[in-house]
Design goal:
This protein has 2 helices and 4 strands. By secondary structure, the chain is of the alpha+beta class. The protein has one domain. The strands form 2 sheets. It has a two-stranded antiparallel ribbon with strand order 1-2. The chain has a two-stranded antiparallel ribbon with strand order 3-4. Strand 1 and strand 2 form a beta hairpin. The longest helix is centred in the middle third of the chain and has 17 residues.
Length: about 100
């Protein structure tokens, strides 16, 4: 199936569990935080759910190893706003939530 799509498969050496650690971590996060809480009927809802989770994972979730900062903030995002009002933005009907201060 991969060869028919033009993808070249590279065989992994035996007993090498840490070769795909970043990909495995993303898949585990997607399954635990998103997919295990949804009932999906078909490929289109699955694709939409994964696109929403990916946008949340990369753009809205604070990165603990980088000083609790966003890795890829939005274009108009200011990192340290001093407003007192907290805004809740959500994706997938409230399953994924992101809290931030508004000016």
């Amino acid at each position: 199936m991969l060869a028919a799509g033009g993808v070249k498969a590279i065989p992994l050496p035996p007993r090498s569990p840490n070769l795909n650690a970043f990909a495995e971590r993303w898949v585990r996060s997607a399954k635990q935080e998103c997919l295990s809480r949804l009932i999906l009927f078909g490929e289109r809802p699955l694709s939409r759910a994964l696109a929403e989770f990916s946008a949340h994972y990369h753009c809205e979730r604070n990165h603990q190893g980088k000083g609790n900062q966003l890795l890829f903030p939005e274009a108009g995002h200011k990192p340290k706003q001093l407003g007192r009002t907290v805004e809740c933005r959500h994706r997938l009907g409230g399953l994924l939530k992101y809290y931030g201060r508004i000016a």
